[in-house]
Design goal:
The chain has 266 residues and is of the alpha/beta class. The chain is 49% helix and 14% strand. It has ten helices and seven strands. It has helices spanning 22-33, 45-56, 73-82, 108-136, 157-176, 196-200, 205-209, 217-230, 239-250, 252-263, and strands at residues 13-17, 37-42, 63-67, 90-93, 139-144, 182-189, 234-237. The protein has a seven-stranded parallel beta sheet, sandwiched between helices. The protein is globular, with a radius of gyration of 18 Å.
């Protein structure tokens, strides 16, 4: 069994998806402050450029940025081919999309978008870098899942399905790579106050109903980078939601009753 030492991203190249705002943007800043090089990917090129310029103030390593529709598998493949000469050490699969609706209200396009971006794109990027990491017997995957991947709640059916998939895929991958010098860390945040919810649930009722659990992207980014340094198996925030997920696993009937009472206000 490989004995892991504290991991440093100083001088490492970190690939981050969904880096133009929210958690991805804050992860870029936190990694830059640790003097990492960066590859930032998202759809909004102008915003990405601003994020890259800010990052460059903190790191003396290269900072690259690429506009890409990550929900389009062909565009993702072309991007990965374009940057294949850049040696990447850490992949942070952060990009995601959610629609908080009753299952019957979800359109075919919304279902496909969530499954494609949240799960398939994550697998596509991970598979691309997996062979590269195995050749050099080093590397780290940071997979941004969700507390919704541990506990499904009303109006999150497909979103939860995609995040359950991320956890299943990543947990299996961690076991496969245990002796390869490659670390896989999953991140399971509760609701984060970002632009994600402007599209996921425009009325704002969801955030209001779970206000005591809402996190800031800055605090989550700091905990993720700290988890990377310690090579944690998982980062779970907030503690209260993760504790509730464990209770739900042990006592599912009570969990169903509590979840309906707390989360059926969305």
């Amino acid at each position: 069994m490989i004995k892991r030492k504290q991991f440093s991203i100083n001088g490492k190249m970190v690939f981050i998806t969904g880096a133009s705002g929210g958690l991805g943007e804050q992860l870029a800043y936190e990694c830059a402050k640790q003097h990492a090089g960066l590859i930032l990917v998202a759809r909004r090129e102008e915003v990405l450029q601003q994020v890259a310029n800010t990052c460059q103030q903190w790191t003396n390593q290269p900072v690259y940025y690429y506009a890409c529709d990550l929900s389009n598998a062909t565009e993702v493949e072309l991007l990965l081919e374009k940057i294949q000469s850049i040696d990447v050490d850490v992949v942070i699969n952060n990009a995601g999309r959610g629609y908080l609706k009753q299952t019957i209200e979800l359109s075919k396009e919304e279902i496909e978008e969530m499954l494609q971006l949240n799960l398939y794109t994550l697998i596509q990027i991970t598979q691309h870098y997996l062979s590269k990491f195995m050749k050099k017997k080093s590397g780290m995957f940071v997979q941004i899942a969700s507390q919704a991947g541990k506990t499904a709640t009303p109006k999150t059916s497909v979103y939860s399905a995609s995040k359950f998939g991320v956890l299943g895929y990543s947990n299996a991958l961690r076991l496969e790579l245990k002796e390869q010098g490659i670390h896989v860390m999953t991140v399971n945040p509760g609701p984060i106050a970002t632009q994600f919810f402007e599209k996921a649930e425009p009325t704002g009722k969801y955030l209001a109903s779970v206000s005591k659990y809402v996190l800031t992207s800055e605090e989550v980014a700091r905990k993720i980078v700290q988890g990377m340094k310690l090579q944690k198996r998982e980062v779970n925030v907030p503690y209260s939601m993760n504790f509730a997920a464990k209770l739900n696993f042990c006592f599912p009937k009570i969990g169903d009753f509590s979840i309906l009472k707390l989360f059926n206000k969305k």
